[in-house]
Amino acid sequence: MVNKINSGVLIFLWMIFIGLIHPIKTAVAATNPAEKPFIHKHNSVVDLNNVLNGAQNSLTLGTYIQYTEAKNPLTIEQLVNGDLNLNWQNTERSTLALPRTPNPYWLNFTLLNSQKQSTQVYLYLDYALLEQIEVYQYNSATKALTTIATSGVNQAYYQRSFVHRAFVFPLNISANTQAQIFIKMKSESFFLLPLRLYTQQGFIEKEQQFNLAFGIALGILAVIIALSVFVAVTYQQTSFIYYACYSVSFFVFYSALKGFALEYLWPDQAYLSQPISFFALIVGLGFLNLFSISFLGLKNRAYWLYTTLFAVSCGCFVFSFVSLFLPHYYRISLAISIFMLSCILMLIAGLISVNKMMASKGYLFCFGLMNGAACLFVVSRFGWVNYSLMTEYSLIGSQFLAFFVLFTVLTERIKQSRRETLSAQLDAMHHYQQFYNIYQYAVEGHFTTTVDGKILHANKAFCELIGYSSLQDLLAQHTSITDFYVDLAVRKNLVENAQDKGSVLHFEAQWQTKDKQTIWVSLCLRYQNDADEGGILIGSAIDISSKKKADARLEFIAKHDSLTGLLNRLAFENLVTEVIKRSQTKQILHTLLYMDLDQFKLVNDTCGHKAGDAMLKQLTSELKMVLDKKGQIARLGGDEFGVLIPNKIDEQALLIANDLKQAVQDFRFLWGEQVFTLGVSIGMMTLGKSIDNFEDALSIADTACYAAKDKGRNRIHAYSLTDKDVNNRHDEMHQVGEIKQALEQNRFCLYAQTILSIQTRAKLKHYEVLLRMIDKNGQIVPPGLFLPAAERYGLMPKIDRWVINHYFKWLNEHPEQLEQLGQCAINLSGPSLADEDMQTFILDCFERYQIPFNKVCFEITESMAIQQLDETLEFIAVFKKLGCIFALDDFGSGFSSYGYLKNLPVNNVKIDGGFVKDMLQDPIDKAMVTSINEVAKAIGMGTVAEYVESKDILIELQNIGVNYAQGYAIAKPKPLSAMLTKNKKLETVEST
């Protein structure tokens, strides 16, 4: 196919070359001096004997004609009388092509009849769109002037002197006479004047031949239109709808151009020929662009070109209507402009697609052929090449050849599509066979049933699942799948869901096999309408009995303690939460017990965890026997248990709690030769009054249990609303939650209290860094309200980290404060000293924020230092070596202060404020302050007095020899930000 197209292209180009080269030579020759002005009398006379006796019965008049442009009004009488000296010209072209001008042209040629009888010939002008033409005959011998006809494109078909689609004028020439023929023409566009003389016989033969050929051509064009529509509908080729519309437009254009539209379509409205012809041409170009877009698939191949061509197409449809209101010359200019733009874009489209699709080469050939023929047609109209059959009729001929090539390409495309379809069908059959094999031999059981359960199909795995060897064996005993459901209501629910949703996945049901064994299956079901059965269910089934057993085991493990088999904390939480919800709706009260074994740690420490685990197993068995069905017991932690006693409160619940306590008390655990006894502390609280969640309930019960421990252990403590011990501890636990939230939300702030050097004048600042918490309402919380809870529940290390990190960061962000700082005191708790990662954290903060070690003093509480002496000594050794200062806080409050003081390598001792604040009234307190100061000085340590609340105390401390003082008499604690404000005020005063 491609070779045929390439050969056709070469032949077409050769024809174009041959068709152009001779007319161009002729045109060049016509521009030489041979085409020159001459006078009214012209020697070139048409001898009618040659026409009448010639083989062709016709003569082309181009070289016999002389013409002139009438720039001033000129009448036929003035021409005949010879009153004017006109500039007449002639040409050597066979077809006259004149430049466009707003003035009319006059043409002149002479006919000689040398015969003895008059004769008639036909003057034929094959240009149906000429605006105005007047023909006159003048006999110079008789001076007779005859008006032959006046016509034009606006004259109705049947009103013409000689009814014809073009312009035909009969000329009667008398015997032995010579007649001059004058023609006046006016046109807004081209002046292409193919003028010929015909004898009557020649004209009849010519009309017969031309009408037949042109009728066949237009008929073929109509067939092309019909075929295009057929192709578009049959093969779903949208592009050929556009091609059919283009062909219709071309049909209208060419019919109007050649006058057939005037003869057959609008004989009464001849003026329509010009506007309709170019309207149809521009619309045709629009459809041709749309054809290119669709045929080449430009939207997916070159989107920018698609949008451009689509915009040009839309422009064609708009400008086609605009052209109806333009002068004819501007219609032509507009059509040529759009034609050239479309040619360029379609050529680019073909070149872009040439390597991407097979049809692009055929497309290039067709549109090269059509565009070449169109260009040849246009240049002949401009007179750049000579008029010929090729220039005039290659345009319509190219349409036939182009459609033939496009249809051939389409046929090949359809064949390829059919081959691909056939290949796809073969693949589908192969896949169907594979699918059948997969279906038949799949591990999963596949089946198809009707909605009421009738079995239509089933594979081998399905039959084996319920104990049958084949489908025939199954259907011999069961025809409905409902026979296998343990509960038919389950299948009803499954089918309804499938009908509502279209499909159901992983639906679990119990089936009964042939051997009456119950199995669990996972079903996937899809509902589908069926013409024969009304509706069918296509499904699969997998035996999940082992999975269900494993799930049940996992569920038990997830809800029970692995050691004792009791409910675990999560399951107990869910149980209690559900009970609380029911109690709030039904107003039923229940009791929650929190049990903590006493002396259990002794068993682990003495005999190991193996003995402890064995003891817990034995004890929980005893406790379950005591509870029987009276309540649920759960293991909440190592030696902590929770008990839910439903529907019983107060005395009834207390009796059960006493039974549990007595059972623990009576329990004896033997391990080797050792016998262990236990006690239990029980906290009891009532569910269903004001408690609406598990965490609060367990917290209160836990607090009540701690109260029982505080009162001597191995006892029961029942919570009440007026229970101060429980409420205080519960408030403390609530405060723990607030502290955690404050840490997460960064709701702390730092304060500073000045430490005054009272023996010498210090140039740099000395102060202690203090901590405050900010509650949810933005109010400051004093440390005494939250630090005890933080210490009790192990939150102090986190708080100490927050203080160190934020204070060091603040110093780093305010270098002027670091420069003015002599020493800052930071409190460290005992748990922080024992925290293995604390040393690393503090060292990292020193390095990250570039804080000098010698400017930081760590204060260690005396009681905590003595309790964790080894960890304290290790911590002090590390940081003291780096340059940090250490102070022993609250000295004097402990029991063995002096004994430990000489073993603690601290720099300063902070005298407990309890001695300082009353030293002026109490001689013993004064003696204690004096004693501590003297002992510290003897060891080589400095002293700091706390709670200095008056100037008198300050003076007395100075007299005793205490180095530093801290208290309200010196300065109250202020936010760190106040120090920045104070500095700014000082700078302002100094500048003033």
TrEMBL record:
Residue runs in coiled coils: none
**CDD domains, sorted:** EAL (cd01948), GGDEF (cd01949), PAS (cd00130)
Q: Which Pfam families match?
A: 7TMR-DISM_7TM, 7TMR-DISMED2, EAL, GGDEF, PAS_9
Arranged from A to Z, the UniProt key words for this protein are: Membrane, Transmembrane, Transmembrane helix
User: Which residue windows are transmembrane per the record?
Assistant: 212-233, 240-257, 277-296, 303-326, 332-352, 364-384
Listed InterPro entries:
7TMR_DISM_rcpt_extracell_dom1, 7TMR_DISM_rcpt_extracell_dom2, Biofilm_reg_signaling, EAL_dom, EAL_sf, GGDEF_dom, Nucleotide_cyclase, PAS
- Could you tell me which residue ranges the GGDEF domain spans? 588-721
SMART domains the record matches: EAL (SM00052), GGDEF (SM00267), PAS (SM00091)
SUPFAM superfamilies in UniProt? EAL domain-like, Nucleotide cyclase, PYP-like sensor domain (PAS domain)
Identify the residues that the record assigns to the EAL domain, covering every copy: 732-987
Under what name is this protein listed? EAL domain-containing protein
